[in-house]
Design goal:
Belongs to the ABC transporter superfamily. This is Peptide/nickel transport system ATP-binding protein. InterPro entries: AAA+_ATPase, ABC_transp_ATP-bind, ABC_transporter-like_ATP-bd, ABC_transporter-like_CS, Oligopep_ABC_C, P-loop_NTPase. Pfam families: ABC_tran, oligo_HPY. The chain has a domain of 85 residues: P-loop containing nucleotide triphosphate hydrolases (Rossmann fold). The strands form 2 sheets. A 6-stranded mixed β-sheet has the order 6-7-8-3-9-10, with helices on both faces. The protein has a 4-stranded antiparallel β-sheet with strand order 2-1-4-5, with helices on one face. It is α/β, with parallel strands linked by helices and 294 residues long.
């Protein structure tokens, strides 16, 4: 199996791209449109007579994703990329700006409407150990997002179990795994369970926050290849959060580079790998191990 650290040598992009996702001409119905996101956090007060100071985690971030496409958000720890993921998922509220999924502003939807919208957007978290409840069976873990659907959409108990088995099969696990517990699986298998949980509602967009960084290097490429296969099979779009340019090069059509909450560069992986313009992008690229003889 190819090491994830060598993915840079075999990007999904065989030919030079001439445009980024956000440069399409004509009327465009975007799957996800993030506009001018600002997120401020108040610091602890140091005086009774002065307002609390604020730190700006995100500063005017905008991006768009088409159906079936992948956008990577790259930056080091503290760049704001995970905060952005939480805001896109409506797990945190922006100070300013909007997040539109299929034209709906997620942060302005009533609770029930937001709950229904979650059918179309799911998340895969970084830690396959911490994101799965050890007290629940795989069947219950994977079925969890179905609870957000109304009765007709969720189906009967038998229907739900069939959908869970279908999702497990899609990620390379067996129906016999349904009644097992997370501790019975390896780290890579646990992340496959987490991906199956995201698939079970048949979403249009999956937000993946560092989906392979907690895995052994020998397993990382397997999970990335699985995500790519699922995209081809189901037409899923990805918003992929990573600190590693090699990872987004493997999976993404466009990359946004985030530094201290601001977008400093964007382009196709080929553009960023061959001609990075910003010094920060150049530094990230220099940190990527390259395949081949030394």
């Amino acid at each position: 199996m190819e090491d994830a650290t060598k993915i840079i040598a075999t990007s999904r992009h065989g030919e030079p791209a001439t445009a980024t996702l956000s440069s399409n001409s004509g009327a465009q119905a975007w799957l996800l449109e993030v506009t001018g996101i600002v997120r401020d956090y108040a610091l602890p007060r140091t005086s009774l007579f002065k307002p609390a100071a604020k730190v700006r985690a995100l500063d005017g971030v905008s991006l768009r994703i088409e159906a079936g496409q992948s956008l990577g958000i790259v930056g080091e720890s503290g760049s704001g990329k995970s905060t952005l993921a939480r805001i896109v998922m409506a797990l945190d509220a922006p100070t300013a700006g909007s997040v539109r999924l299929l034209g709906q502003d997620l942060h302005r939807l009533p609770r029930e409407a937001l709950r229904a919208a979650r059918r179309d957007i799911q998340m895969v978290f970084q830690d396959p150990y911490g994101s799965l409840d050890p007290r629940q069976t795989v069947a219950r873990i994977v079925a969890e997002p179905l609870a957000a659907l109304d009765g007709a959409a969720a189906g009967s108990r038998a229907d739900r179990r069939a959908r869970v088995a279908e999702a497990l099969a899609a990620v390379g696990l067996r129906a016999s795994d349904l009644d097992k517990y997370p501790h019975e699986f390896s780290g890579g298998q646990r992340q496959r369970i987490a991906i199956a949980r995201a698939l079970v509602t048949r979403p249009k967009l999956i937000v993946a926050d560092e989906p392979v960084s907690a895995l052994d290097v020998s397993v990382q490429a397997q999970v990335l290849n699985l995500m790519q296969d699922l995209q081809r099979q189901f037409g899923i779009a990805y918003l992929l959060i990573s600190h590693d340019l090699a990872v987004v090069n493997h999976l993404c059509d466009e990359v946004v580079v985030l530094l201290q909450g601001r977008v400093v560069e964007r382009g196709t992986p080929r553009q960023l790998f061959t001609a990075p313009a910003h010094p920060y992008t150049q530094a990230l690229l220099a940190a990527v191990p390259r395949a081949g003889p030394r």
